[in-house]
Structures are given as structure tokens and as C-alpha cells.
Amino acid sequence: MRLELDAGNTRIKWRLSDHRGRFDGGLDLKSAIELSPSWLGLVEEVWVSSVHDAHNQWIEDQFPQARFACSQVAHAGLSNSYEDPHKMGVDRWLAMLSAWDKNPDAVNIVVDAGTAITLDIVDAFGRHVGGYICPGFHMMKSNLLASTNKVQAQSQWQIGRAPGQSTQQCVDHGIQDMVACWVEHHRAMQPEAKIWMTGGNAEALGSLLTEHVELVPDLVLDGLYVHFSK
Questions:
Q1: Which residues are catalytic?
Q2: What pLDDT, in 10s, does the model give residues 98-116?
Q3: How far apart are CA 150 and CA 173, in angstroms?
Q4: What span, in angstroms and rounded, lies between the C-alpha atoms of 28 and 81?
Q5: Are strands 12-18 and 66-68 parallel, antiparallel or unpaired?
Q6: Helices (H) and strands (E) in the chain, counts
Q7: Please, what are the domains in the chain?
Q8: pTM of the model
């Protein structure tokens, strides 16, 4: 069995696979181990994407055989635009690797809507044109509410883009419309591009867009396979 890990800013997503494909998976590895530690003995290989140093020591203690992916100059036909590729978050690199592997020789826009929202553009020659890193939905909302005196809204979200008719809607719809317009702007600049979307808020963001998006919750984990096997 192979254990694949996506250690983000807030959680460690996991997927257990064998030669036939996915066997099991979830959003919180530590809870899964606490509930049922017996399956750990089945794990032979461990592949890791991690953007949070605090997770790394715990992963190494649990799985001494763990192999950590890193961003590269180039791999499997994809080239990195960063002068120092290792400074790119490995989750971004793996998501692009996966998108390029699934849709080669075409323009791809890769959006990861998590704690932060990243958007990366890959041209039809496999070159990373560049990207963006912006605050995620919850970060924008919490910072707005913490920095203002009269703007008050509940933590729950009202999904939509229409002009708000309450402070709650104005905050929620304003943030969502701003992010959706940003993605649609880059899609309009690259009309032939395929949009890939992953991350905890990907489904909500995808539902707001007028353009079709390819929603792939395991895009980063799929990228681990490309990184280590191709």
C-alpha cells in the first residue's frame, strides 16, 4: 500500500492506494490514525506534499520511509518560471504537474482555493507563465470583520454574487464576486484555457463561475504520482 499526503496550512489530507487505485482517504490523517491505527502496518511507501513545517516532523516520526516532494526546475514536460524553483509552494507545483499530465499541450489555469487562493497559468508548451497568491475566502472575511467597527456578519456563508441586501450578503457576496471575477478575468485573457480547481473552497467557487471548471479534489495528490513515477 502507498500512503499519499497533502499537508496544507490547516490539515493533512490523505489517500491510501494500491496497484488498483484509491483504497481509502480523508481530510484529517491524525484523526484517522487515532480512530483506527491498525492500517498503518499495511503502508509500504509514503509520498508527501507539505507546505507546513510543523507537520513535517510528525510525519517523519510516524513514517520514517516518507519521501517529500519538492518544486523543480522542470519535470514531465512542465517548466517552472521561478528563478529559485524551491521557493514555490510544492502544492502549487504538484497541482500544475497533475493538470499538465491530464491535459498536455494545452493552456491550463490551475486554481487552489484553500486558506490562500492561488492561480497559476501554464501555456500550451508546458511553461509556467506565472501565478498569483491571494487571501482565501475565510481570511478575507475574518480580516474585514476584525478591522472594521460597524461591519458585522456571521461566520456562515451565504453563497452568491448578486448585490447584497443585508450586511451579511454584502460581505459574503462581495468577497465571492471579487474572487469569481478575478478567475473569469484570467479565463477571458486565455479563452482556450481549461480551468482546474481544487482546495477546500473549490466547489463553492466553481459554482459561482459562468465558465465550466474541472473540479478535482485530489489534484495535488494526483501530482505526487506524476512527481515520483514519471
A1: 91
A2: 999 999 999 999 999 999 9
A3: 18
A4: 32
A5: unpaired
A6: 7, 12
A7: 2-68 (3.30.420.40), 83-137+154-218 (3.30.420.40)
A8: 0.94
